Amino acid sequence: MPKQLIKGNEAVVRGAILAGCRAFYAYPITPASEISEAAAYYMPQAGGAFLQAESETAAVNMLYGAASAGVRCMTSSSGPGISLMQEGISYLAGSELPCVIADIMRGGPGLGNIAPEQGDYMQVVKGGGHGCYHTLVLAPDSVQEMCDLTTLAFELADQYRNPVFVLADSFIGQMMEPVEFPERAILPPPPSWAVRATAETRKNLITSIYLDPDALERHVRKLAAKYERAEAEVVRFEQVETGDADLVLVGYGIAARILKAVVRLARAEGLRVGLMRPITLYPFPKEQIGDLARTASAFLAVELSTGKMVEDVRLAVNGRKPVEFYGRAGGSVPSAEEVLGVIRNIAERYSLVRGQSPEVAHV
Amino acid sequence: MSEFDILHQRAKCFYDSFERKAELQHQTHYCPGCGHGIAHKLIAQAIDELGIQDRTILVSPVGCSVFAYYYFDVGNVQVAHGRAPAVATAMKRALPHGVVLSYQGDGDLAAIGTAEILHAANRGEPITVFFLNNAIYGMTGGQMAPTTPLGEKTTTTPFGRNPWTEGYPLHVSEVLSSLEAPVYIERVALGNNKMIQQAAKAVRKAIANQVQGLGFSLVEILSPCPTIWKMEPADAQKWVREELTKVYPLGVFRDKTKEAQPRPAPVPAPSLDELPKIFSAKEGRPPALAPAAPCRRTVDLRVKVAGFGGQGVLMLGQVLAEAGLDAGLEVSWLPSYGPEMRSGTSHCHVRLSNHEIDSPLVSRPNVLMAMNEPSLRKFLPAVEPGGWIFYNGTSLPEGAMRTDVTFIVQPFIALADRIGDTRAGNMVMLGAMLEATGLLESEWVASALARLSKSERWLDLNRRAIEFGREVIHREVSI
């Protein structure tokens, strides 16, 4: 299939429908509305349900209904809307209902602005709702991954019976890149636990209430075991030139794309710099970062925030090596040259060896 | 063999024993005299009569009836406080053959869940809602409900409900009856046997409506809560009958059962093999083909296109990116603003390269296409030495000068008037850029244009504009 130039937000919807998503419920918000608009156009043609909900609160509970009925379902929003959905996400996790939530992050807190930011990290990766639960979080850094990771999100959601986030920002959502879509559409059969208004499923019950403390503890421990399994099974990451890196940059989403350019510029100056890009933010590639802490001299986390993911990097490095941070927020985005300046400073402070410049620096 | 006929028995869609109670499993967990038990029975009898046990899904709320699933042997879904109509909406849309019942109390439906019930009703969702109104928060121990009558003392209105501070009892049936879509809304009461008989009819009708595919039905049931009201069961029933019905008059508020039409069936889904075709229909244009002759040159275009909104900045970038795609190059296009920012400045970043594109953000452009002066001034310092600057103007503005780059200064937009439409000024500028840099073949640009132009007229105009731009560059180059 030839590649098509397409926006990240539309790639999410196409990927979702090809992965068997047949229900989409959302409330408009910039910069995620294009996902709703594409879903409104395509979902009815695919025989699925689309509804613009009266609020994000309603939208996430509509996911609760669609997921209870055994339908692959999805919503999209941005920071303020995700905040409103947190109640429902806790219920979805508690009732072990699979669904996919795309968060196209914008500037915050409060109304903030509509420019790209990565300030939702804590509320998405750490779970912004009540109770002991996690959501699995995938962070695309390209339009191709907006499609591919949405597909993966549906698989993981079903596999773990848990909400899965696709965490992007308004750059990844609005930019266009060539995408190769799957040639075949899939539609998995409804799961056996779903409530489907049939004799076979009549005994099924979807609930998150366990009044008896022992029963609730058993339930929470069952969830915890599930997350432990996910930590062992679904970690994904990309490494760029980390093999000999003195300084390992860590970033996800659009920040990682900038950092890929930074690695090239730094290498051209003879600095041994590499990039670790977490693709799954939960589970976080903590073992892999721990491994890098054996060989690297220092880490630099770069985010479009005042420092959130860096906490996970510090936990993974566990004090073995210094972890620096550089971030821009409010919609300002660091240029590759700006980050390079930070790296030069770090190289000086930690006396990192400046090797020979490679023969050909591809600039 | 039985020697007697059974006239009344437990409804078949109730479980035989109720696990909610550890010991007395023939009893419910509800208090003596509570209305929930009666309401449950009426619903269960209706399910039996209509023969829909397997198709029924009961959406239970937060409140005393949170455990309805211990009693009803139907598909059960327990949901968040107030959100049952949203959940029921999606379940019904996923399973149109199902009979979806939402069972909610007054705190659930009339306070925290007002948005969900109002909009489900307004959309005419073909679901059935049972609204148990006992004018108090029961499960949490007797706080004020939106439906608490004026003057009533509750744990959160210790001096009695005061309209100046707590407002007035909320009349849900009346409010929802002001909407166009609902098919059936009736308020009944569990105040004596006669009232309960009427309630049974209403409950049955509300479910039967859904079985027939008709729209939104709601039955408000005035219900006793002796424990929290601190009354004997008989007194509580009397209070429902004599006091609560004064605040909430009984009756049918809406009945369009006879004239209501079932919701039209959705368009049948395409087969999985056919499904991907829905994505090619939108464009109305062929997808990009593998280029006949891919680009063999070394390309590393880092372009910033900038101007006012409406000057075709984003479109220019898009044509460039699409042409790059046809040339077999790696491409990216990144707009700088969201779709709701009108008439401000806008710019986009476009990259074309033989190599995988690291950052789609262009911070050191080697081509700047500035359609107005602010854009030129803003991005001029960032242009890489040896780069190209295309500026829409008659001359360079004062102070906007560099000697290490090549300037192409033309009133591109004004020039577009000569081919009939200044709106094609962006394509004139693109033509000039393509000609000056010589990086992309005409055929790649032509196929990109064909995909992106919204009509034949625009395609023709854009083609001529690009050709014209290519010519313009040979006429005069100002540096």
Condensed summary:
The complex is a heterodimer of chains A (363) and B (479). Helices cover 40% and strands 19% of the residues of chain A. Chain A has twelve helices and 15 strands.
Describe the model:
The complex is a heterodimer of chains A (363) and B (479). With 363 residues, chain A is of the alpha/beta class. Chain A has twelve helices and 15 strands. Chain A has helices at 8-18, 33-42, 56-68, 79-94, 121-125, 143-160, 170-174, 213-233, 254-268, 286-295, 309-317, 336-349; strands at residues 4-7, 23-26, 49-52, 73-77, 99-105, 136-138, 163-169, 176-179, 205-206, 237-240, 247-250, 273-278, 280-282, 298-303, 323-327. Chain B has helices at 35-50, 84-94, 106-112, 114-122, 163-166, 172-176, 193-211, 226-229, 233-247, 278-281, 313-326, 373-379, 412-415, 425-437, 442-452, 456-475; strands at 56-60, 75-78, 99-105, 128-133, 184-189, 217-222, 251-255, 300-308, 330-335, 345-353, 367-370, 388-392, 406-410. Chain B is elongated. The relative contact order of chain B is 0.08. The chains are: A alpha/beta (363), B alpha/beta (479). Chains A and B meet through helix 1, helix 2, helix 3, helix 4 and helix 7 of A and strand 1, strand 2, helix 2, helix 4 and helix 10 of B.
